[in-house]
Design brief:
Radius of gyration: 14 Å
CATH architecture: Alpha-Beta Complex
CATH topology: Nucleoside Triphosphate Pyrophosphohydrolase
Number of domains: 1
CATH class: Alpha Beta
CATH superfamily: Nucleoside Triphosphate Pyrophosphohydrolase
Largest sheet: 4 strands, mixed
Strand order of the largest sheet: 4-1-6-5
Strand content: 25-35%
Distance between the termini: 43 Å
């Protein structure tokens, strides 16, 4: 019996610096080309979601994250126009704001203070609101 046809597994990472800014990339490719997005991507076979999260952040921003806290699982079948994806989303707080270097699927990577004023890809605005609630609750 073969494997079932299931949604693609992805990760996204919400990274805050001590000033409360969030690390965002500008998407190099469609969908949402040019829009801000959280660093993230597809989980490779044989990889944990935590390892995938750290790898994607490193590949897209050049920044190493260690501590990861689960924000939630986002599984709306319409969240990605390319097809059904399920994302494990993590939160990381950096003690210092390292300088991001865009790479891989990122056209740019930068610390953004007022992310609410920007158009964000996918469901990343909702994810950021959820992550901020976790920060505000002191969890």
């Amino acid at each position: 019996m073969g494997m079932p046809n299931t949604p693609a597994l992805t990760v996204d990472c919400v990274i805050f610096d001590p000033k409360g800014r969030v690390l965002l990339i500008r998407r190099k490719n469609e969908p949402y080309q040019g829009a801000f997005a959280l660093p993230g991507g597809f989980v490779d076979i044989g990889e944990t979601v935590e390892a995938a999260c750290r790898r994607e952040v490193r590949e897209e921003t050049g920044i190493e994250v260690t501590d990861l806290e689960l924000v939630g699982i986002y599984s709306d079948p319409a969240r990605d126009p390319r097809g059904h994806t399920v994302s494990a989303v993590f939160l990381s707080k950096l003690p210092v704001a390292a300088s991001p270097i865009a790479g891989d699927d990122a056209a740019a990577a930068e610390w953004v203070a007022n992310w609410q004023t920007h158009r964000l890809a996918f469901d990343h605005a909702r994810i950021l609101k959820d992550a901020e609630q976790i920060l505000l609750s002191g969890a």
